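1st attempt posting a full record on here, be nice pls
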Amino acid sequence: MYLKKLLFILTASFSFTAFAEQFQILHTSDLHSHLEHTIHRPQIGGYGRLRLELARLKGEARDRGIDTIAMDGGDFLEGNIFYMADNGRKSALAYNKIGFDVAVLGNHDYLMAAQDLENLLRDVPPSMALLAANLELDSRFPIAKKIIKPVWETTVNGIKVGVIGLTLRDMLYKWRLKGDGMIYDEVTSTRQWARYLRSRGNEIIIALTHIGLKKDKSLAANIPELDFIIGGHDHSTLKEPVYQTSSNGKKIPIFQPGEFGEWIGKLVLDYDRKSKTTKVIHYELHPVATESTDPEMMDIIADANYELDTLYGKEWLEGIVGKSFLRPIKENNDTAVWNFYVNDSMMEAVDADFAIHTNSISGGNYPLGNVTRRSLYNGNPRHFELSEKYGYRIYTAMVSGFWIKYVAKICLKLNVPLYFSGLSFKWKKKSNGKYEIWDIQHKGKKIQLFRRYKVAFSEAIVRGGFGITGLVRYIFHFPQNTATTMWAALEAKFNREGELHPDYVDTYYRQHLLKSGYPVERVMIK
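the predicted structure (as tokens):
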């Protein structure tokens, strides 16, 4: 009996090695030009650590005879002041040095618009394959058209692997390519290219996406040709894969590795040639927490800092404008406080009746401790044109009270967290997806239907709204670019008040009530 068991084990082992092959995928996403670690988690992240750790993990696998594919899930450009160093060139150069084999274009990588993207790719061609299967640029951008491919094919440990890149098709962003290109439906594009890759003999097909977990699930549910989805856009830190059952009953795992190069997703796969199936042997989110950093990368970061000092002036950029007592986001999330602070700074800077802001503009890197102009920018790090070195401007619109409800509805349709200051209302989302809004108040009184109210918006909401529908221009009654930047508005507010505390919202409410005799209404919609 013992000999029979031993023979069975040896036979099974032989069969396994004869038909099964392993390889490794290392992946990141949503780096957003965070060449240095964030102030909220200084112990992890930064490109100096990331490059070193990626190389170490590759080497460990190679010593065991396992090949590696290094992937990035997009949004590697806009999102930090390093993006502005030499008009994105320093960030692109640093990204090239990390060690990726393949990457996908994210929405924050094309927000600069097609011409700036064309120029950037001309000056700093990517060292990895750059994908976007559902993006078609106009022939006026030949360099970008040549560089950005729909798919990438490789062989690892004798296994043919095909990768499809998918960028985000969302009304909030796609308008930036209007007239210069088209972004097509993610499911339709993936199905087309998955079948193409399978026809070319690829044994494993991976979707490398920057579309978010909800859309990743839709891909998996509708396209059984896929084997895995490596995703981004949500900044989700998935410690375990999310499995979605496809139309033929196949369970497709989805992976997302967080943000800012703080984690590397480490995925070991096993492909069985006999059954033509792949299974996950091991998955973990590996912290980028090395004690040392890569010297070459640190030189690039030093050059990027020099470029920023040249662009803005070192003393100006590092000048202290106030103090923040907000808590680190991973300890006690004060994101809502910061977003209302940004909203109030816009409202006060242009003397508006109320203001509308979205969390997706500011992100989570609100300032801690001594607030410098640099940390203010990183607390609201948004740009369209690279020539606008101080970032988004504040727009105002004179909106009739009759249209206030529709303005709120337009903003709600963006499907992003929203912050309203100086305005309150009750709302609910109906089963058909439409919104019902009622009891709209300003200064403690109901909105007057025929009065015009001055509304402050970030540049993104107004220009994005124009890109979505021409009705916005009519409702907003020809909104004005005030030329005041959000960066300047935030600095002015710190200059007036000096400090920002976690109880800011309540304190501001009480002070305003005592000073003016009426409350400051607020609404937060997640």
